[in-house]
Specification:
- The chain is α+β, with helices and mostly antiparallel strands and 117 residues long.
- It has one domain (7-81, 90-108): 2-Layer Sandwich (Double Stranded RNA Binding Domain), CATH 3.30.160.
- 30% of the residues lie in helices and 26% in strands.
- It has two helices and five strands.
- The chain has helices at 20-33, 88-108; strands at residues 7-11, 37-42, 53-58, 67-72, 77-83.
- It has a five-stranded antiparallel sheet with strand order 1-5-4-3-2, covered by helices on one side.
Length: 117
């Protein structure tokens, strides 16, 4: 019998690589838009995802549960990770955070006409 996964990811599509400083600002705007705060900023699996940036989002300092986000510029990947055993608020809030991140990315990188590329 296959082992049940302990977590699942919500991918956030990227049209192009974004610099670390710009991504930090995008993530901060999305957190504010969803009434979350960033409780931790670090790296994620330095061997598998070198130079990645990893965030923890919380709703309240004393409340259990968090949403993980990871940006890996070299691999052009950005995703949220949700552990299955997290409290209900995490699973309900993560889709809103993903939408806020997508909106902040779109505002930071508005579509350009083909001739401007």
């Amino acid at each position: 019998m296959p082992k049940e996964k302990k977590s699942y990811d919500l991918a956030i599509p990227l049209a192009e690589a974004i610099g670390r400083d710009e991504m930090m600002a995008i993530v901060e705007r999305a957190a504010a838009a969803t009434d979350l705060y960033i409780s931790h900023i670090g790296g994620y699996s330095r061997i598998k995802y070198p130079n990645s940036v990893h965030w923890h989002f919380k709703r309240d300092r004393k409340e259990p549960g968090l949403i993980d986000a990871t940006y890996w510029q070299e691999g052009a990947r950005f995703w949220l990770t949700l552990r299955n055993n997290e409290p209900r608020w995490v699973h309900e809030t993560a889709p809103r955070l993903r939408t806020a991140l997508e909106d902040a990315l779109a505002q930071a990188r508005p579509s350009r006409p083909p001739s401007a590329r």
